[in-house]
# Entry
Amino acid sequence: MTSPAQPPGAHLPEHPDFLWENPEPKASYDVVIVGGGGHGLATAYYLAKVHGITNVAVLEKGWLAGGNMARNTTIIRSNYLWDESSGIYEHSLKLWEGLEDDLGYPILFDQRGVLNLAHSLQDVRDSIRRVNANRLNGIDAEWVDPAGVKEICPIVNVSQDVRYPVLGATYQPRAGIAKHDYVAWGYARAAHAMGVDLIQNCEVTGLETAGGRITAVETSRGRIAAGRVALCAAGHSSVLAAMVGLRLPLASHPLQALVSELLEPVHPTVVMSNAVHVYVSQAHKGELVMGAGIDSYNGYGQRGSFHIIEQQMSAALELFPVFARAHLLRTWAGIVDVSPDASPIVGLTPVGGLYLNCGWGTGGFKATPGVGDCFAHTIAHDKPHQYNEPFTLERFTTGALVDEHGAAAVAH
Amino acid sequence: MQLIPCPWCGPREEAEFHYGGQAHVAYPDDPSALSDEEWAQYVFFRDNPSGPFAERWSHNAGCRRWFNAVRDTRSHDLLAVYRVGEPMPEVTA
# Structure
């Protein structure tokens, strides 16, 4: 074979235009958002779009959307038990339904439905209660028996001779998945177009206050003065809050997930199981995407223990015997900030101008548009939006908890 | 899978252990005197450092005894283990 006349790749088209720029940080901003993941980018987008606040920087210590936004299992649903949760998650789902048009960017949002399996009589009772609560809140939900499960997702093993037989499931047809990277890029592109500075490789190392009010952030790229600071740092929220002496009721844990090699379409929906700790969908490209329960110990290392994956795989094989010949492609972990009641903390702090968005634990991705909208409102008005009003830090003192351990569907 | 050095049994596989969260959280001396804020701190608020963390483990599938460990939450390295009632040893992360 003779050597080619052109170097390899020379025939390829030019690199497309970048979706956003990488500006140097300015000396000061009206609002500094700490964390360039889905929540931070969405908050910046709604601050600019809904409230006209565009002198905004999003600071990201690594690269945009490289933390939990790149590590989640992309499941979107709103079938939570309590009215408070229904409010914010359903608000989010409604925004998802119009997001592609809103952002002018493809996000591959696919409402293929979610089944939450019940494996015990108590599961069945809790699930039917949750279906009823959802319907009272105007959320699409139904109870399906094992034959119905089989009809919706034919590869689920509904036979009775397994350790945890499927006794039925809740079904939310409007639930689904989206392409996580595209969601982040869509928000980043639109926020950038409205004048928001997206600053990567910029780690916050200190928070400066004066007279009980936030004044600036210290970063690895210098001091940046800020009228308001909004924390969207998920697993690292406790570390940031400690910089102003604020203690949070959070524990940061590794949460693992994995994908198989690319396969023909076999899995038409999303299946989650609380009791056996696995949740599965098939990505558009064809990988089976599976999430596990959290690793038990606190950890910031973005990796977890192997026996968690073993348990997750044994659960997956019992539910989906057809997966036995699938090969594992890769596994990873994100750091999730788990709160005592499996509900988030979104709102004001004792420090003036400092706002908190954390505690989403294992379920933050689905909330991306909803919390972006509500958190932007909170920052713009210095007052919570009606949908995040119940999710205060004070609820751990008053006792007004929003216990979603059942609907969170990941073992905590 | 990492090995955890049980102070009684020696190094065993992590799957034999159960995690117990932050160590040295004492039950309040006078519970009836606590304010709501103090109860909240005792029940719900825990340290969550990125770095060395003193925590409780139980060797569930072994001697079934509780002990304390200092572990670096960034690397998951166990820096020290010590028995309940002993003070937290000095560690360098």
